Predict the structure.
Amino acid sequence: MAEMVVIRHGQASFGQDNYDVLSDLGHRQAAAVGAVLRDMGWVPDRLVTGTLARQKDTLSAMGFAAAPEEHAGFNEYDFHDLLHARYRGKVPDPVKGDRKTHFRALRDTIFEWQEDAFDGAAETWGQFAARVEAARVFATDTDARRVLVISSGGVIGQLTATSLGAPIGQMMNLNLQVKNSSITRFMFSGNSFSLHEFNATPHFSHAAGAELLSYS
C-alpha cells in the first residue's frame, strides 16, 4: 500500500492581524519535522499543500526541494468567519484574545456549524467536508508511493474521523489535539484509505525538541 503523510503547519500567528504567517517557532518546528522524516529515510515522491501561506512556508522550511502541487481542499476552515457568523458580528473580546476562551468558543462553534445551527458563514459544514474529501481523492489518485501533504488541524481531524467512520463531532475533538508540525499517516490503495498513525511528534521526543511543542 502507498502512504499519505499529512503534516500540520508550524505555529502561525495567533492574536495577530494576519494569522496566516509562521512564527519563528513555526519555522523551527517545520525544519525539525523535515529533518526527522529524512532521518527515518522517508522521502516523498509527491508533494501537496493547500493554498495558505503557512502551509506552503511550512513545506519550504522542511527542506524538500521539489515543487508542490496545491489543492484548496487542504485549507483550514475560516475560524474568523465562523465565529463572526455565530456571534452575528459581535465576537466577545475574550474570544478574540484569550487562548483558552477562544478555543472553547471555537469548539462549540464548530459543533453548532456541523448541525447548521447558525447561518451567514461563507462555507457550510457540508461544503467543508466535501472539499476535504475532494482533496483526499486528489492526493491519493496517483502512482506515487509516498505522498506528503501539508495541511491544517481541522482538515486532519476530518480526514482522521472519516477514515475511522467516526461521528462528525469527533472531527473537532481530534482537531484540538493536533500539534503544530505533527505527523498523521494514512495508508491507501484504490478505494481503501485507513489511518496508520495520528498526531505523532518524534521530533519533540528529546529535551530540546520538547521546547518546540505548540497547538496553535
Summary: The CA atoms of residues 72 and 202 lie 28 Å apart. The beta strands are 2-8, 46-49, 69-70, 146-151, 183-189, 192-200.
